[in-house]
Amino acid sequence: MRKQWVLIVEDDKLDRFLIEHAFKKLDTSVEFDFAHDAESAWETLENGNRPTLIVTDLNMPGIGGMELLSRIKRSDQLKTIPTIVFSTSSDDADLREAYNRFANSYVVKPGDAGGYSRFAERVNAYWMQENRYPCH
Which parts pass through the membrane (predicted)? Predict the structure, then answer.
């Protein structure tokens, strides 16, 4: 069983590349896995895999990020896993809906590679190093 790992749910190839590149630049032992859609992320979680953190896009084909968030937070086994929404949407309705579904954070995707690096650094510094989690 891995000590710390992040499940990143992202359907866009360019965003996956930028996120992966940003996290690989960090000097960390944290592992990062990608799910290309919410359904495959849900399957990973249902199979007993418990990441330290979930980062999910909202707008994806299929059930999408909002429904994934709802499923995670309704599950007694998964609801304590912190979940960050990482979306291009800055719409107040999306923001409110994500928090109504118990997202732990909502971040609008940056417009450049430097923004992705800052996001990765902050995720690592706060969620992986400072924040404490119950054992899963």
Answer: none
Tell me 61's DSSP state.
S
Q: Record the pTM.
A: 0.93
CB 84 within 8 A of CB 123: yes
Pick the CATH number of 5-130 from 3.20.20.60, 3.40.50.2300, 3.40.50.410, 3.20.20.10: 3.40.50.2300
Tens digit of pLDDT for each residue in 1-45? 457 899 999 999 999 999 999 999 988 888 899 999 999 999 999
Instruction: Name the residue with tokens 């996956």.
Output: 16
How far apart (Å, rounded) are the C-alpha atoms in residues 87 and 15? 10
Integer CA distances (angstroms), 115 to 45, 71, 76, 99, in order:
28, 29, 34, 23
In sequence order, the 6+-apart residues with CB closer than 8 A to the CB of 47 are none
Instruction: Give the whole-angstrom CA distance, residue 136 versus residue 131.
Output: 15
User: Which region, left, alpha or beta, applies to residue 8 given φ > 0 means left and ψ of -120 to 50 means alpha?
Assistant: beta
